[in-house]
Each structure stands twice: as C-alpha cells, then as structure tokens.
Amino acid sequence: MLLILGFLTVVAFIAAWYHLLRKTRYWSNQGVNQTNPIPLFGDGWEVIFGKINIADWLQNTYNLYPNARYIGCYNFTAPSLMIRDPDLIKQITVKDFDSFPNHSEFTDAESDPLWSKNLFALKDERWREMRHVMSPTFTSSKIKVIYTLISEAAEDFVKYFQNSSSNGAVLELEMKDVFTRFTNDVIASAAFGIKVDSLRYRDNTFYLEGKKITNFSGFINIMKFFALQTVPKLCKYLGIKFFSNATRIYMTNIIEETIKMRQEKNIIRPDIIQTLLDAAKAGNLSEKGTIDGKGKRSVEISLEDITSQVVIFFLAGFDSVSTAISFAAYELAVNKEIQDKLREEIRQTSQKGKVTYDALQQMKYLDMVLSEVLRKWPPTPFLDRVCSKPYTIEPINKEEKSITIAPNTEIWLPVYALHHDSQYYPEPEKFIPERFSEENKGSINSYVYAPFGFGPRSCIGNRFALIEVKALLYNLLLSFEIVPVKKTQIPLVLETGIQTNAKGGFWLGFKRIES
Q: 3-class DSSP state for residue 337?
C-alpha cells in the first residue's frame, strides 16, 4: 500500500512539474524569443529573493535579444510580453489604446476598494470618467495657484538646515529621509490643507503613515506585492490587502475631517479634495453615470472615491518625488561642474526677485538637468498594460511570425532599459544634461523617454511633480552645495527588490555656502 501511495505521489509530482514546465514554453511555442523562466516562479525569482533590483533585471532581459521587437517573459506562470520597439510601443499605448486600456489587476476590487478605486487602478469607462473629473486639478493654471504652497514648503526646508549649520560646515544626511519629509509636507499642505513640519516633528502620524504605505522592501513585502498581482482571489481569501485596515481608517478619518471643516467654514482650496467635492456637488448620483438635460455625463463621487484618489496622490508624491530628488542630489554631488552651472542659472534668476512659477518654467538648464535625472533614474522602471481583446502583431522582420496576444495577457514596457539603450542615448550611464538642450531634445523619440508613462494613461500629476522638484532644487542650491561624504557610494548601486533606491541609502552632505 505504501509503495502504491509513494508511486502515485511521484507520478503526481512529475505531472505537476510537467504542467508547470509546459507553461514556461508558451512563447517559444509561438516562435517568440523568450527568457529562461523557472517553473512556478517565472522570471522574477531573482527580484523576489533579493538577488537583484527590478531595474537591473529589466535591463538584463531587454538585452537578451538586441534585435527583437518583443521578448516573451513570465510573471510567475502567466505569460507576459516585453515590448522593445518604440513604434510598437506607440501602436499599443496610443494608436490601439482601446485594445490595451488598463493596467494589470493588482488586488481584488471588492476586498480592497481603497486601492481599486484610485485612478491608476480603475478600468475602462470608470477610469475615463474619473480621469475627466481629476484633470482640472493638474492643469498649469491650477498648479500655478497652488505653487505658493510648494514654494513655502521648499523655503521652510532650506531655512531648517540654514539654522542647523554655519558657513562652510557640512551636514551629513541620508537624502531619501530628508526629502520624503519635504514631499510629505507638500502633500499635507497641497492635498489636505494641513501643516505638519516633518523635519521638526519627525514622528508625526502623517509622515509615519506615508513611510508605512510606501515600504515595499524586504522579502515579505515583495512577496505580498507579487501575490496581490498574481493571485488576487487567494489574497482576498487570506485577507491580504495593499492597504492595511489601519491605513484605510486613518486616511478615511482625516479626509472626512478635512471635508467637514471645509464645509463648515466654507473653505475653498485649489486641490484634489476640492476638485472631487465640486464634482460630487454637481448631481453625480448614479454609479454608472447619468446624462443630464444638457447632454453631459455625471459621475458618482463617494467619500471612498475621494479617499482613494487622495491616497494614490499621497503614495506617488511621497515616494516617487522624493526618490527623484534624491537621485538629482546624487548626480549634482558627483558632477560638480554641472551643479555649479545650474547654481549660476539659479543665481541669475534670483536677481530678478522672488522666484515665480513662470520663472522656474523658463529655467532651461534646470529643465535639462531634471530631464536627464528622470532619464537615467526613472521613478517607475517599467509600465504595464493588459490586453482586452485578441490582438495580432504582424511580422515586419524575416525572423518574425504573426503572433496573437490573448485577452488578459500583460504587456511590459521596460522604461529603465529604454532609457539606458545606447542606440537612443550614447553613453547611457553618463549624466549628460545636454541631451535635452533645445538643439538636441527634438531628436529624442518620445517613445523611448517615458518617466511619466505613455499615451492616455500617462501620469496625470507630472506637472505637479516637476514643479515640486524644481522649487526645492532652486531654493536648496542658492544656500548649499551638495557634496559627497564618506558614506557616499560612487558609483551608486541600486538596492535589491522592486523599488529604485540606493543600496545603503543616499548619503550626501549639505555644505553651507559662504554668504
């Protein structure tokens, strides 16, 4: 009896292994160049087990077939297609957007509405409706109004360190920590209408909550991230969510209190909450939307919807923007001549008086430097789309075959790898702001430069993020030189995992400029 059970166990194991092995040949069976996945774990095992950063993995995979337009990959057992060709990226993200309108489903919509109702996660018509509602918040005119809050936060940031240092002294700091405190203060002010001062009050709840929801480091958090994406139904059964119940309760309460205060005191602010409140007042009562007498579609806006949009803005603004500023600080520290040139432009601008939104936008070298930071260190190393209906990619090279992408197949757009491809950016590991000069930037294919995404689903808050970074760099470089210190890692190495952070931290110094 034991021999029979043992035999059946072995047979079952072999059958299961064969089934998993067969899944790893999905693309090769269609004549597509593919990776060499491990059964069950697919291609991501090195990232999951902390062997490599996801950006480096993307680069390695991208380089496997230098002449291919696309490469077959595997997200655990699910086949995905990495697109290398700029023309094909344009086709998928713009021309044939209706075939790839959504991001992959990150978690179960019913069990985690705080995530599933945000603009990034929404799908199809509901996404279009919410994008239309949110767009007015991020126009140049609206950001121009709210710029005063951003500028005030940047000035307060610099004053704090001015009061902590003397001329010529070097303050040795971990940049990601100090810059997340700045972005936290901007979000608190611009989105919630509250002042928290995270440099002085280091353990304020608003900041600690931001640290909690943007932490994807460590094996458990990485496994949670992949599990939510690949097996959402199992995560629902186990009660695993992107946002914890504590985060949901905290964010919902603070937004409820903000809305109540505004309504009681008749406060109107040009921010996300106000935009959504205005939409909710416009008779938007139907879940699917109704057509009013003027032929306009109304959209239901609930407290949950408002909370979800504000939280995703918090998530992106807290971590992505602070990461971009940290990389900018690093590049300026190790490229002194570039920092000096940028400071000279800043000084010339400052002589005209207090810097305005328009003045920042007219600073050409600052724009070049920031564009190159986002080229070399994009905040999101890859983007995704999901096929909504059968889609055929016709061959254009003799080694290609016609392939049909099945519905629900993920498409990967390797932003980091495109930004580091030498055929588009000579000497890609060098920091060269002149790539984005007036003379040169016109020659850059817009489908190989995507720090904020491609097509209709590009980041809605890109203008806000850019002006936030510019305002801080402007104020900071007027008073301080950013310098390497003993702990500075040169060249910078990325931490393993799914976030683009520096291994060991962004350790640099603020050196007070002699006044």
A: helix
305 SS3 class: helix
State how far the alpha carbon of 158 is from the alpha carbons of 355, 365, 401, in Å: 15, 21, 58
Question: Computed from CA positions of residues 482, 487, 490, 491, in that sequence, does the dihedral angle turn out positive or negative?
Answer: negative
CA atoms 260, 262, 265, 266: torsion sign: negative
Please give the structure tokens belonging to residue 65: 């077939």
Measured N-to-C along each axis, helices 336-350 and 321-334 cross at an angle, to the nearest 10 degrees, of: 110
- Rounded CA-CA distance 158/464 in Å is 20
What are the residues facing 403 on neighbouring strands? 393
CB-CB contact of 402 with 393 (8 Å): yes
Centre a 10 Å sphere on the Cβ of residue 282 and count the other Cβ atoms it contains.
14
pLDDT tens across 373-383, in order?
999 999 899 99
Query: How far apart, in Å, do the first and last CA atoms of the chain sit?
Result: 89
Residue 191's pLDDT band, with cuts at 50, 70 and 90, is confident
How many angstroms separate the CA atoms of 356 and 352, rounded?
10
Q: Would the pTM of this model clear 0.70, i.e. be above it?
A: yes
pLDDT digits (tens, 9 = 90+) for 214-251: 766 666 666 666 666 666 666 766 667 777 778 788 88
If 0-12 CB within 10 Å is exposed, 13-18 middle and 19+ buried, where does residue 392 land?
Answer: exposed
